[in-house]
Each structure stands twice: as C-alpha cells, then as structure tokens.
Design brief:
Length: 350
C-alpha cells in the first residue's frame, strides 16, 4: 500500500512538470506517404515541453521510444480529448502494462482519435535550465478495421455533413484514391470548394476524410483532414482569378466548322490574366500550348465544377490529358511579369 501511495505521489509530481511548463509547443507527427512510422529529432531546455499529436484508431498498436541526452527527460501519452494536467494514459517514467521499459510505450489502443505524446524534463533538471536533445521514434502498427471503433466524440464517422477546403495561401488540395499520400491522384480541390463528408479515418498519423464533390458528375476520394473545415451544401463559387491587380477578361473559344482545334493571339498587361472558356465532354482529350514571347507567362486549367484540372504551369510546358467532366473548362493565361506580354495559345480537343 505504501509503495502504491509513493508511486501515485511521484507520478502526480511528474505530470505536474508538463502542466506547469513555462513554454509548451505543439507539433503534429506526419508519417511519410506509405509508411507507418517516423523519427523526430528535438530539443528542450528548462521548463520547455513539446506535445506531439498523431491520429490512430482503436485496435491499432502504438509504439513510442524516447532516447534523450539528458536522463531526466521522459514522456506522457494522453488519450484523445486529454492533455497535460489530465490523467495520462501512461507515464514513460514508470514501468507498467504499456511501459515495458523506461521511456518505451507499447500498447493497443482502445479509442479512435488524436493522441498526444508530451516530452518534458523533471522539475529538478528544468529548474537548473538543463538541455536535453532527443530522438523520438513513433510507429502505428495494424491495419485499419473495417469500420471505425471507439470513435472519440464522433470525430471520424460523425462531424458536419459538408466540408470546405481551407488551404494555406489559397492553394489546391489533392483528392486521392485512398487515405494515403501515396495513393493515386483523383483530382485537385480548389480552396473554398465545398464537398460532401462521407466519413474519416486515421492513417499515416493524420485524419483522412472521404469526400465527394457536389458537381454531377463528380468525384469521390480522400483528402487530408488538416485542410477541411465545416462547409455548406452550396456549390462552389467560380475560382478566383490568379491574375492579380491587372484584372481578368473572358473569351469563348470556338472551333471552325469541321476542325478540332483553334489558335488565338493575345496580349496581357503586367498582372493581367485572360480566361478561355472551352466546352468539352468527359473522356475527351484536351491539348493546350501557350507560345509566349517571354518567360513570365503561366497558365492553369479548371474543371467545370471549379476544381483544378491543372495547377499553374509555365508557358514552356504544354498540356495533354483526358477530361473527367463535361461542360465549360477554363484555361486561364496569366502574366506574372512587369511588362506587357504577347502570346499565341493553341487548343485542341480529340
């Protein structure tokens, strides 16, 4: 009984170190595409602590090993919904059911969600402002079950009916054929685009959500949940021009009778862009070539639903590919330079 009481008092003191830390920072652990683990190099000084977060599902096996230069360095593992100041799932300072040795965690998880690994130094070392350099080895073993089990707060199979893409800098979001950065690319989703939520899973340390575009016909695939926020069932607005301060104009492309292509001539002021509307059908092949008199022209192509068919490409590269949707495709030519640019643009549909 005395031993258990002393263990509880010591554990509580260890938990308090992280909770009282003067500087806590959070970092998300992301596994490389197609892998199930990662190695992180880090450093803390004094009362600093680092909270590493990663997603995993019930039934999977989480393994963590910490190798610090300062032996007063340990870590706590917290279940989804908890963190420093709460009861830890395990304290790597004390051997137990999921801690086979000091600074090693090995346990089968009972809850699906985002786990936290909190790395800190004991108060005695922190008070002396000591530094600890460390390597943190993390892996998640076991295939995903057929369906989500132990879903914390319905964070995976629940959630909003619709998501909206929210990328940093207004870039595109890859929609993939599976919940992995190594899965094939289905299409690219535009920033601000609304999609239907078909449920999420944890893979490669992060949340992946299966979504469907709202266009008919549309696309289904998996997108990284980091870049999805609650959205609406409203169709996406037309993509914002990348042309900038120079303004944007629009021109309809028409082929002469009996032909399958056209060549147009244009001129753009600095920062200006021009959108060419070209009607085409799913399954047809599109060819685009921009012949410019300088290196500052680029172009991008949008699907009829506003998603990206092609992110920005320089005029030195031509495009040829099969279309996935029917309707007006938008080819936008952009002048990124500081002087007026003239060009020819060639279109072909097979």
């Amino acid at each position: 009984m005395l031993r258990e009481t002393l263990w509880a008092m010591t554990a509580a003191a260890a938990f308090a170190v992280a909770a009282d830390a003067q500087e806590m920072r959070t970092e998300a652990i992301r596994f490389a595409p197609g892998t199930s683990g990662a190695t992180i190099a880090g450093s803390i000084t004094g009362y600093e602590s680092v909270q590493y977060t990663l997603g995993a599902e019930a039934g999977q096996r989480l393994k963590v090993r910490l190798e610090p230069s300062n032996l007063a360095t340990y870590f706590n593992v917290y279940a989804p919904g908890s963190g420093p100041g709460d009861q830890a799932l395990a304290n790597a300072q004390f051997m137990g059911e999921m801690v086979p040795d000091i600074n090693i965690f090995d346990g089968t998880l009972s809850t699906s969600g985002e786990y936290m690994i909190d790395v800190y130094m004991m108060r005695s070392a922190a008070r002396r402002n000591e530094t600890s350099n460390y390597a943190l080895y993390v892996s998640i073993e076991g295939d995903l079950p057929a369906q989500v089990e132990g879903d914390y707060a319905d964070g995976l199979q629940g959630g909003p009916d619709y998501f909206q893409v929210a990328t940093s800098g207004g870039g595109t979001l890859n929609l993939r054929s599976g919940p992995s950065g190594a899965a094939g690319l289905v299409t690219r989703l535009a920033n601000g685009q609304n999609v239907r939520n078909l449920g999420c899973r944890m893979a490669e340390g992060r949340r992946w959500c299966r979504v469907a575009t709202l266009a008919d016909p549309g696309f289904e695939g998996w997108a990284a949940g980091d870049f999805l926020i609650e959205g609406t069932g409203m169709a996406s607005t037309p993509p914002t021009s990348a042309g900038g301060v120079g303004g944007t104009s629009t021109e309809r492309v028409r082929f002469a009778a009996g032909t399958s292509g056209a060549e147009l001539t244009g001129s753009l002021l600095p920062g200006e862009s021009r959108r060419y509307l070209l009607g085409a059908s799913n399954g047809q092949d599109l060819y685009v070539r921009v012949a410019a008199n300088g290196p500052d022209l680029s172009y991008q192509i949008f699907n009829p639903d506003g998603s990206f068919l092609l992110d920005q490409m320089t005029s030195a590269q031509e495009y040829r590919g099969q279309l996935w949707q029917s309707g007006d495709h938008v080819i936008e030519v952009i002048n990124r330079g500081n002087s007026t640019q003239t060009y020819n643009v060639i279109f072909g549909i097979d």
